[in-house]
Amino acid sequence: MNGRQPAVHSRRLGAGDPRRISHYRLVARLGRGGMGQVYLARSRGGRPVAVKVVAQDIADDPEFRRRFADEVKAARKVGGFHTAQVVDAGPKDAQPWLVTAYIPGPSLQEAVQAHGPLPSGALRVLGAGLAEGLAAIHRSKLVHRDLKPANVILADDGPRVIDFGISRALDGSSATNSVLGTPGYMSPEQFQGRDAGPASDVFALGCVLVYAASGHSPYGEGNGLVIQYRTINEKPDLAGVPEHLLPFLMSCLDHEPRRRPTVDQALAEFADPSGDSAWPPPGIEAMVLQRRALGALPPPEEPSGRGGGRSRILVFTAIGVLLAAAGAWTATAWPDSGRSGGASTDATVADRSMAPCDVLDNAIAERHMLTDTGSPGGYDSGSQRVRTCRWATAEFGDPDPGYEGYFTLAYGPASLEMIQENRHRFPTDLSDLPGAEAYANSSEFETACEVTWRTSFGRVSVYADEPPNVIGGVGCDAVADFARSVFPKVPT
């Protein structure tokens, strides 16, 4: 191990990034591949997903669009324990997109860069999992064609194969002689523009396992043409690979596709009947937990602010600890409004969203110590709908004991009252929020507070609740301050 600290490799949305793709709300960048940008997003039900948006220059190619539509149809059939399920797609949109399940965990590349080569037991789990994932892909009449360390996610229950971005259908209906793939993990036949079938994925499997065992590709790094020459003409560099793996990996890297083992043979080679192989590898657990925290969702919202307190505290205590380990809460990626501050000076009624989570930007997140990117919710109030978004915050006290609280922004009818029990006016300065009023509950220490004002569609409320005896007398002032941040950004 090299001692480097793992980090959550995600970035805030930039001014040029979309905020929504179809009905998926984008919250952060996860990375960029050869086909386009990958985002962390939320489904309408709040589930974390990965959304790949195809780059415009590729999307403008009619032949690509036809091939993409065919492959999306085939990829939806891929199942198995070791792949990321394709759940939705928009192949006919102006910029085609693809949605897969979000797998919390680092890539193999990130894990090896942070902690060095995997130990023997973990290599066995990795080899068996990748072979099983490729078998599921091949059963669906697809070839991956871009298996590499960056496309292998190390989840807490085993590896996952992701990104079928340049796969092709085995029936030849979308065959292409284009040289697609990543040098260092491409087979000789890929470089030569020949047919790249399942045996090509086995070659890539061998390359990936060499990387996992040694920390380097068997054909080196650098100039793609140099790597191409080595792949076609030279023997692989297997320095650092455990001796007992050498014969099988050499067979995977045979220049002749028909002499390579099948994925079923690879599965038999690496399967551990005892099930005793250690997973996840040492040092990787924290990286897995950080990715889980990035995609973590709070429990369903409770408008009364009273029920389910213990479970919410446990969930956000864990997230707070994980984000602190990743370099404090500011390491999380936040949606960027494209404006320099939390208050918009040029927003019009038309561009203020009726989705409360859309108010979030970096300035708001930083100013109010938000520790997640918001959980959309809502409920029916008579014949009208209340729309909500809730964020965890460390603003109400020392986060170490788990005293994070929650800000909720709600849009609803004129009768909306987030505090319903022992509701009473609370004296706090609201002179810069025209028509706003503050309310608290009347326990010995206020444990919930609401700042509310009328609007054209009914009422807006900013509400906070937290573990008992934490909000105290400063809580309503903090809620009023949060209301000042979002006031210019909500519908009027």
Plain-language structure description:
The protein is an alpha+beta fold and 492 residues long. The protein has 2 domains: 65-81 and 104-283, Transferase(Phosphotransferase), domain 1 (Orthogonal Bundle), CATH 1.10.510.10; 296-489, no CATH class. The protein has 13 helices and 17 strands. A 7-stranded antiparallel beta sheet has the order 11-12-13-17-16-15-14, with helices on one face. Strands 1-2-3-4-6-5 form a 6-stranded antiparallel beta sheet. Strand 8 (152-155) and strand 9 (158-161) form a beta hairpin. Helix 4 (120-139) runs antiparallel to helix 9 (263-270). It is elongated and about 80 Å long. Residues 1-9, 171-177, 297-350, 398-403 and 467-474 have low confidence and may be disordered.
CATH topology of the largest domain: Transferase(Phosphotransferase), domain 1
Mean pLDDT over the full residue set: 76
Low-confidence stretches: 1-9, 171-177, 297-350, 398-403, 467-474
- Principal-axes geometry comes out as elongated
Please tell me the CATH architecture of the largest domain by its name: Orthogonal Bundle
What fraction, in percent, of the residue positions are helical? 25-40%
The total strand number stands at 17
Main sheet: which strands, in order across? 11-12-13-17-16-15-14
Distance between the termini: 55 Å
- For the CA atoms, what is the radius of gyration? 26 Å
Tally of individual helices: 13
- What fraction strand? 15-25%
Let me know the CATH homologous superfamily of the largest domain: Transferase(Phosphotransferase) domain 1
Reported for the largest beta sheet, the result is: 7 strands, antiparallel
CATH top level assignment of the largest domain: Mainly Alpha
Structural class: alpha+beta
Tally of discrete structural domains: 2
The helix-strand sequence is: EEEEHHEEHHEEEEHHHHHHHHEEEEEEEH
